Amino acid sequence: xxxxxxxxxxxxxxxxxxxxxxxxxxxxxxxxxxxxxxxxxxxxxxxxxxxxxxxxxxxxxxxxxxxxxxxxxxxxxxxxxxxxxxxxxxxxxxxxxxxxxxxxxxxxxxxxxxxxxxxxxxxxxxxxxxxxxxxxxxxxxxxxxxxxxxxxxxxxxxxxxxxxxxxxxxxxxxxxxxxxxxxxxxxxxxxxxxxxxxxxxxxxxxxxxxxxxxxxxxxxxxxxxxxxxxxxxxxxxxxxxxxxxxxxxxxxxxxxxxxxxxxxxxxxxxxxxxxxxxxxxxxxxxxxxxxxxxxxxxxxxxxxxxxxxxxxxxxxxxxxxxxxxxxxxxxxxxxxxxxxxxxxxxxxxxxxxxxxxxxxxxxxxxxxxxxxxxxxxxxxxxxxxxxxxxxxxxxxxxxxxxxxxxxxxxxxxxxxxxxxxxxxxxxxxxxxxxxxxxxxxxxxxxxxxxxxxxxxxxxxxxxxxxxxxxxxxxxxxxxxxxxxxxxxxxxxxxxxxxxxxxxx
Length: 504
Description:
By secondary structure, the protein is α+β, with helices and mostly antiparallel strands. The chain has 13 helices and 22 strands.
C-alpha cells in the first residue's frame, strides 16, 4: 500500500440541497408545449432553495469534508482554498476568498477560483494534486467544486441538471491519504458540445449524435489511455470508472473503447440528483469513496473542451476516516417539491409582483462588511477569558451580569456549535421569497443566543426545543447593485447522529 509520503486525497465531503423537484411535475407543466420531455420525467432532481447558490453549497461541502477537523484544530493544516464553478455568484470578486472567510481560515491562506469550463472541477483538482506532488504548497489544499446552473423552462436541461457540491483535502505530508494519486492526463481541444456566452444566462447545446460520436468516443479514450500509461496500469485494473454524461450509454461505451470492465462503470446519480455540472465528476467521486474499500483503483473522467483523466487507489486510511454525511447522507435527507412554480420563482424564471414589502432599498455598507467580516461571514462571536461567558456578537463588554469585564473576549466560532430553538414564529406579513418567513430565538449549547432566520423548513416543522445547525446562506440580494448579502441561518439538524463512515 502507498507510504506516508504519498500524495492524494486526505478527506472528502459533499452537499446536496434538501429540496428535490419531481421531474414529473416539470413534464406535466410543460407537456402542452414540449411533449417530448415526458421521456425524461422519471425520478427527481436536486434544486437549491431560494437562499442557496454555488458558494453556499461549497461551504456546506467543505464543512462536511473537514468535520471533525474544524472542531479539533486539524483544519489549521489548510494552506490553500480553491473553488471551481461555472456559476460563481460574483464575476469580479474572488469567490474562494468568501468561502475561506466563511470557514475562518484567516488571511494567510492562498485562494483561487477555477471556472469557464465543465472541466474546471477535474482540472483544478489535478492542478492541486500536481502542486502537492511538486511540494509547491506548504500545507494541504481544500478543493471545492459546486454548480447551480440555470435552464430555460420546458427544455430537457431543466429535467437533467441538478445542484450539488463536493470537497476534498489534497496533500501528502504527514500521511493520512485515503486515495493515493497514481497519475493523470489532460487533453485540451476546443470541441464545442455546448457553450454559454459572457452575457448569456443559459447554455446553448449542439446535436447529441455529433457530441457522442465525434466528441466522447474519439477524445475520452485517448485521455484515459494516456493516464493509464502514466500510472503504469492496464485498463483491466480499474475497479471503479467515474464519468458523467447526459447522453445515455456514453460512459458504458467509453469504458468499452478504453478496455475497462463494464461492471466498473459507476451510476451517474441522474435519477435522484441530476447532473451538477463542474462538480459532478467530483460528486460521483465522493459518492464512490463513501462505499469503496481499501486497495481499489478509481478512474475519474472530466469532460469539457477536452478531457481530464485522474487515477486513484484507495488506502487503508479510508476505513478509519471519521464519519461524514457524504452524498448518500444528503440524498437521504430529501424533501419532495412538486410545485413547479416555486422552482421557477426561486430561479428568477418567473416575474412576480412581490408587493411593497419587498421594495426596501438597502445598499450594503461595504466598509462595515469589511470591518465585521469575521462576525458576518465567519459567524465568529466572543468568549470572555475572565468568566468563560460565550456570546454573539462579540462586544467590548462581557454580557454576563456577574462579570462585565471590558476587552476580555477572544474570538469564538459559532458555526459548529449545536443549538436549539427557544422560541419561533412564522410570519406571513414579512416579505420572503418562500413564505411564511420563519425566524426565532436560537440558543447555543455552549452559551449565547441569536434571533435567527430559519431555512429549509416547511410550515408545521419547527418546534420549541428542536435541534438546529447553522448554515451559510443568502440573506438578501441587492438586485439594483448586483450584490449578494450572505449570513448564517438556522436549519433543522437532520444530520445529528446519522453520519456515515468512510466505507461500507
